[in-house]
Amino acid sequence: MSAAGTGLHVRGRAWVFGDEVNTDEMFPGFANRLPIKEAAQTMFNASRPSWPALVRPGDIVVAGRNFGLGSSRPVALLFQQLGVSALLAEHINSLFFRNSINYGLAALTVPGITAHVTEGDELVVDVTAATVVNIRTDTQLTGAPLPEFLLSILRAGGLSAQLERAGHLRAPVPIQPAVHAPTAR
Amino acid sequence: MADTLIEKVLARACGAETVAPGDVVTCDVDLSVLIDTQFLAGRLDDVVAVYDPDRIAIVMDHAVPAPSIRDAESGRGARAFAAKHHIERFFDIGRHGIVHQVLAEEGLARPGMVIACTDSHTCAAGAVGAAARGLGPIEMLQIICTGRTWYEVPPTVRYDLTGCLPGGVSGKDVFLFLAGRDGEASGHAVEFGGPGLEGLAMSDRRTIATQGAEIGADFTIFPSDERCLNAVSQAAPDAELIPVLPDAGADYAAQRAIDLAEVSPMVALPGSVIDNAQPVGDVAGTPVDQAFIGSCANGQLADLEVAARVLKGRQVAASTRLIVTPASQRVYAEAARRGYLADLVDAGATVTNPTCGACFGYAMGVLGPGEVCITASTRNFKGRMGSPEAAIFMASPATVAASAIRGAISDVREIAEAPE
Q1: Among B48, B379, B386, whose Cβ lies nearest the Cβ of A168?
Q2: Residues B280, B395: contact at Cβ < 8 Å?
Q3: Angle at Cα A22 formed by Cα A18 and Cα A26, nearest 5°?
Q4: Residue A23 distance to chain B (closest CA, Å)
Q5: How far is the C-alpha of B102 from the C-alpha of B89, rounded, in Å?
Q6: Most exposed: A182, B289, B340, B350, by fewest CB within 10 Å?
Q7: CATH topology match: B5-239+252-260 vs B265-417
Q8: pTM of the prediction?
């Protein structure tokens, strides 16, 4: 489930991380040469190695200050591979922020979010309004709304989809139906 | 309106009289640079047309020569892309280097330019007054297709430098000093100026500018003073240079002072540089398994020179391995001509081909569990250089060289003063 697929509303369980979670922690250097599907299984291998196996589609990642400090490696693709639907943080590194949005993963700066959420809480996020409702505590926080041009990237499903629509990128070659598909006969 | 340096550059680039922090501006990108790793799965094959082949460069740096079949495939992709889209500025293996070093050497980074590249250390070009920052791989696709992207004008933190660096102290120590004292600069531009700038070598400025990424800065930027303009015109004799300086009375989010004469050799402790650097004396004596000098931050000729000077006639400790990786072919060749490489190799260092190398734990100089490394590179994140159970200290090339000799973190000023 991505933000784009649900009209920029997402609902999911929260995973809470601390301050200064860096890109190398989320996407280890050696995983750069792995296919995305396999690289996703290495997320947080140094700090929380069991995490990728615990994530369920729709889950939301909550972090503290300076979220995503580091490099431009496409961490968002790994989160999306695991089904993560949104990132919420006290403050997000600007490179990581635009990189996430550009891959179609909603990322919102929500001051106070780490005090507002306990791991496992069910959250409902309206990305357009930048509101986060905690179902358990029945409270709402409001973050910094995204400008329209970034919302439109999320609605499109990411920058690559926008570039395809504008004719800058050729659409990927569709995957051929598998020969052993049950419908083949 | 009085503008800071980054406001000046972004205002020109977006065609506005002036800009203010918080403004989101759309700018023409003067130079877009692609790197080898982007060709792994970056959809560059799907690009219909590039906006201007003369404003695009391709630099092979992260994984060269190819350490794996996948990396070899990305090299093939880069060569095919360069041929198909007529990219003449293609720095393939043999005329390559780390992208930021190549931009400096080739005079491709100039004052006032807007430079986009997917590597997060693109802020290195701020050393010559360019608005340069790392952007994601997918955004680079947009830029090479359209020639434009957006920036949010950040508030500026200003550093006023006075004095002169003492012996054994370099730009790395200045950076670690400010990261340790002042902490992060997330979402800010970091601007340098003041009378101390005059004596600060371009290599030191480049180290500082490069490492702005580690304190979360959007941009690090230096004014185009005489030293800067001389360096750029030496690299690009035909370029018409327009100096960029901040306006007097510009509005800064913070103004801080550093007396360069007071800076001493610094070491960042493992994890991050933010609020985490100390004078070398605090950690001296910590045994090190590996010492590394290289990367876009510290693989410059000046860095190899200082390492060679410390190591000449001495030996790397038996318990320690020293890896030295020149930042470019040009640095490699010049260091060979000047005898630095021979001095380093004679001392027991492993000198490698130019590449990003051990800095990002991908292809060489990878750390094992429980190992301790002292590095003059860009990042000391847990797991950055290999095992998450390795510890990475960060320091200047001089401190790393001194530590390699003793097999433990050491103050270079003691080594330099020791009798032969």
Answers
A1: B48
A2: yes
A3: 95
A4: 9
A5: 11
A6: A182
A7: yes
A8: 0.95
Q: Where are the domains of chain B?
A: 5-239+252-260, 265-417
The residue in chain B having the minimum alpha-carbon distance to the alpha carbon of residue A76 is B136
Residues 6+ away with beta carbon under 8 Å from B401: B291, B293, B306, B307, B310, B311, B322, B412
CB B91 within 8 A of CB B60: yes
Does the structural domain A4-169 have CATH classification 3.20.19.10?
A: yes
Judging contacts by C-beta atoms under 8 Å, the chain A residues touching residue B24 are: 147
Q: Tell me if chain B has a CB within 8 Å of the CB of A115.
A: no
Domain B5-239+252-260 = CATH 3.40.50.300: no
What ipTM is given for this predicted complex?
0.92
Per-residue pLDDT of chain B (420 residues; tens, 9 = 90+): 899 999 999 999 999 999 999 999 999 999 999 999 999 878 999 999 999 999 999 999 999 999 999 999 999 999 999 999 999 999 999 999 999 999 999 999 999 999 999 999 999 999 999 999 999 999 999 999 999 999 999 999 999 999 999 999 999 999 999 999 999 999 999 999 999 999 999 999 999 999 999 999 999 999 999 999 999 999 999 999 999 999 999 999 999 999 999 999 999 999 999 999 999 999 999 999 999 999 999 999 999 999 999 999 999 999 999 999 999 999 999 999 999 999 999 999 999 999 999 999 998 999 999 999 999 999 999 999 999 999 999 999 999 999 999 999 999 999 865 444
Q: Which of A26, A38, A69 to mutate: most B Cβ within 10 Å? A: A69
Show me where the domains of chain A are located: 4-169
Min CA distance, B116 vs chain A (Å)? Answer: 12
CATH number of B265-417: 3.30.499.10
Across the interface, of B46, B213, B362, the residue whose CB is closest to A169 is B46
Tell me if chain B has a CB within 8 Å of the CB of A177. no
Q: Specify the DSSP element, H or E, that contains B134.
A: strand B131-134
Q: What residue of B is the nearest CA neighbor of A173?
A: B46
Q: Please answer yes or no on whether A28 and B71 come within 8 Å at the CB atom.
A: no
Inter-chain CB proximity A25 and B135 less than 8 Å: no
